[in-house]
Design goal:
heterodimer; A: Hypothetical protein af1432; 17 helices; B: Beta-Lactamase; Beta-Lactamase; 11 helices; disordered C terminus
Chain lengths: 285, 503
């Protein structure tokens, strides 16, 4: 129906993280960066600054003292969390910018909720499994389905067709992709984040979040597996948000990679539920 | 820029290396925290460091003081612990770091730092890794301490049990399912570790492992007697055998002496009876003759005197046997050897037993491989041996069967002759075979008097045979009959024509 090359060509039409977001990403991963540098980068965009501050003071973080300046936010929440906040603001904008022409008719609020929930679920899982840099899991979870945003922008027609199949026949999004023989959201998403210059870890978790076994030998195997499990759990709890209506398929390889014991799952779900009630500020940005 | 990064990278590696080295040497939780403080001072040079456990109890403070200044950040400490977030908070002229120590998703404590300036991204990352590493190592060290303590207890208990087992007068070993000795107590190491005992004990243990039930055995080694008892022991889904080996030599000796004493008592009763029977006959017949001589016809008189003569002969035999026995006891039995034809000696013994055989309806036969077998032996004693064996064979024939026989055979071998006396009599029970050559021993209880005899015959025979340098043995089946074998060296070499007295 549509070749991947054609699709990739059209990726050019997609919004690219602007200079400010690019700068934030660069500064947050520069070992020599200082709080001041990151704060300065964010402050270049006034609207971004206020949104970041709002999120930093949200119930999700529950900081006991109100944060009024970015420097404090960066120091208390850390560079990476603040980068995540900026990235969230940007992704939200990209999703709701939509296509110039025809509308695919999908529920973008639901899809955004899915992004946020998977970000939180990934971070929570990382916390429980003792993964030291849990902030990285947030951004990996947040961006895992970025390919769907791309599809929605590039080819609303295809998106509409896929959505029709998944919602009416209660199928998974990947099954619909196979049926229509269109490039998968995982491959398109991976191309996109690669093009944005995001780290390899994010490229792999976008590409592999349905098939974590593909990256079993990668240094990012654990991260990809955790994003996969978070995605499956959120899809099970909130079917349809991600435009996928079938029964989510859990990869046993992911459980093996993490040596995950089933007994920690109830603890994970409990803690996740506690957190999801606190993310309204993210969901309703 | 690249150079700066490389130098920084090197600095990080150096820091990690020294931290890991410090961690290698720690033996307790406290030492980990001291190592941590040391490395923190090298990394970010904090003004102060406080380490709390997850309930905010002070574990370590640097520099040392207990003013609890840090409690003014109480709510931030709670927040950092709750959110498992590593964060920094500007407070006046310093930046306070909150580094929860997380292990397996659980906060095990928190590190607080007072910094002069805000940390770099790299420093934050390093601090974060240090705190993770410390909590992991701390937990491992605590687990290790716990395990070591348990090990020490287990070892103490084991030593205690070992020393108990080592005080046992018995040897104790445990044999594994594969037949290997997996435990031996001190007694076994000192006393029992020789091949005979080991082999026998392993044999008994093997039976226990195969059958799963208790087994016993006995072994004789270097003149000592041992009893073996093996019990099954279930261990990690295999069966082992706890095998106890006891030196029962003194018990055995005591038993033997007791039995000897009992046999001597029986012997006295028995021999009195044996001596009384002919004596009573002699007394009765001679009394009759004495008081009724005038009324007796010559035939009756002859009969009576013949009986008296026969009975006195029997009495003489008994007394000779007793005499022989006492000689044996005093080691005074002497062989008067000369060159003789053994065939003749045996034949005369058979002939003299023929009448006794006939009266018992036993067919007595004799055959020899050669007509003449020359040997250097004591003819009287060899005849005594033959007589004893033949009379025993007749004596212990079955009462009510047809075709009773006693077959005497003589066979010349290279430098020995073999005398065999075969019967189809009552036989000897297997468990009694090795006892019949003992003095006083009789297979039936002597006191029943079913068969007459002193119980000395075979022990005398054995002594005679052995004094000739020969050996005696028996093959027997209870209810089917017995065959006694006597093998004696011809003894001709270097003794031709000489007459010699042996001890």
């Amino acid at each position: 129906m549509v070749s991947i090359e054609k699709m990739i060509d059209k990726l050019e039409e997609l919004p690219t993280p602007d200079f400010v977001v690019q700068k934030i990403i660069t500064v947050a991963s520069d070992p020599n960066a200082s709080v001041k540098e990151l704060a300065n980068a964010i402050m270049m965009d006034a609207s971004l600054s206020s949104k970041v501050l709002k999120l930093a003071n949200s119930a999700y973080y529950g900081i006991p003292r109100e944060i009024t300046v970015l420097n404090e936010a960066i120091m208390i929440l850390g560079f990476k969390t603040v980068r995540n906040l900026a990235m969230s603001v940007f992704t939200y904008g990209a999703l709701f910018q939509g296509s110039q022409g025809e509308d695919s008719g999908i529920n973008r609020e639901a899809l955004w909720r899915h992004f946020v929930y998977v970000a939180v679920a990934s971070e929570t899982l990382g916390e429980i499994l003792g993964y030291p840099v849990k902030e990285e899991l947030f951004i990996n979870g947040l961006l895992h389905d970025i390919g769907k945003v791309a599809l929605d922008v590039i080819s609303p027609k295809v998106m509409r067709a896929l959505h029709k199949i998944t919602s009416e026949k209660k199928r998974n999004f990947t099954e619909a992709e196979d049926l229509l023989e269109v490039p998968s959201h995982t491959s398109i998403g991976a191309k996109l984040v690669e093009k944005w210059g995001l780290p390899e870890m994010i490229v792999q978790s976008v590409a592999g979040h349905h098939n974590p076994e593909l990256y079993i030998d990668s240094i990012n195997a654990e991260v990809v597996a955790m994003v996969h499990i978070a995605d499956v759990v959120i899809n099970t709890m909130y079917p349809g948000d991600s435009l996928s209506y079938g029964k989510p398929e859990l990869s046993h390889e992911a459980l093996n990679i993490l040596s995950l014991k089933p007994r920690i799952l109830p603890r994970f779900i409990d803690r996740l539920k506690d957190k999801l009630v606190k993310v309204d500020d993210f969901v309703n940005m | 820029m690249a150079d700066v990064t490389a130098v920084r990278g090197e600095k990080i590696i150096t820091l990690f290396s020294s931290f890991i080295m410090e961690l290698n040497n720690v033996k307790s939780g406290d030492q980990i925290f001291s190592a941590l403080v040391k490395i923190l001072r090298k990394t970010v040079n904090p003004k102060w460091v406080v380490i709390l456990d997850e309930k905010k109890k002070l574990l370590l403070s640097f520099p040392e003081n207990d003013d609890q200044e840090y409690m003014r950040f109480s709510e931030l400490i709670d927040w950092a612990i709750q959110n498992k977030s590593h964060s920094f908070y500007p407070a006046g002229d310093e930046i306070v770091g909150f580094l929860p120590m997380i292990r397996a998703g659980e906060v095990r404590g928190i590190i607080l730092l007072g910094l002069n300036e805000e940390p770099k991204v790299e420093e934050i990352d390093s601090l974060r890794v240090f705190s993770f590493l410390s909590s992991t190592v701390a937990e491992n060290v605590m687990l290790l301490e716990e395990v070591m303590e348990k090990n020490r207890l287990v070892e103490e208990t084991m030593n205690y049990l070992h020393s108990i087992l080592d005080t046992f007068p018995e040897m104790v070993i445990v044999v594994s399912q594969e037949g290997e000795i997996v435990y031996m107590n001190k007694r076994f190491v000192e006393e029992g570790d020789n091949d005979e005992i080991r082999e026998k004990a392993l044999g008994v243990a093997k039976e226990v492992i195969e059958t799963g039930v208790r087994r016993v055995g006995e072994v004789e080694s270097e003149g000592q007697f041992y009893s073996i008892v093996a019990e099954p022991l279930k261990y990690q889904s295999t069966i082992q055998a706890v095998t106890t080996i006891m030196n029962v030599t003194s018990t055995k000796e005591l038993e033997r002496l007791k039995q000897l004493d009992r046999m001597k008592t029986e012997f006295v009763a028995n021999i009195s009876h044996e001596l009384r029977t002919p004596l009573a006959a002699i007394k009765a017949y001679s009394e009759t003759i004495l008081y009724s001589l005038e009324e007796m016809d010559p035939d009756t008189l002859k009969d009576f005197t013949k009986t008296i003569y026969e009975e006195s002969q029997h009495l003489e035999n008994l007394l000779n046997e007793l005499l022989d026995f006492s000689k044996i006891e005093r080691k005074a039995l002497k062989m008067e050897r000369q060159n003789v034809n053994v065939v003749e000696i045996i034949k005369s013994a058979v002939d003299s037993m023929m009448e006794y055989a006939n009266s018992n309806k036993v067919q007595l036969t004799f055959e020899s491989s050669d007509e003449v077998i020359e040997a250097y032996v004591d003819p009287t004693r060899i005849k005594q041996v033959a007589l004893n064996l033949i009379s025993n064979a007749i004596k212990y024939s079955k009462k009510d069967i047809e075709n009773k026989y006693v077959r005497v055979k003589l066979k010349k071998k290279e430098d020995t002759f073999l005398l065999s006396v075969e019967d189809n009599g009552i036989g000897i029970p297997e468990d009694k075979l090795d006892k019949i050559f003992e003095k006083f021993y009789r297979v039936d209880s002597s006191l029943t008097y079913e068969v007459s005899g002193t119980g000395l015959g075979l022990s005398i025979v054995k002594e005679i045979v052995e004094l000739h340098g020969g050996k005696i043995w028996v093959e027997s089946e209870e209810g089917r009959g017995s065959t006694f074998y006597v093998e004696i060296p011809l003894g001709l070499e270097g003794n031709n024509g000489q007459h010699r007295e042996d001890d």
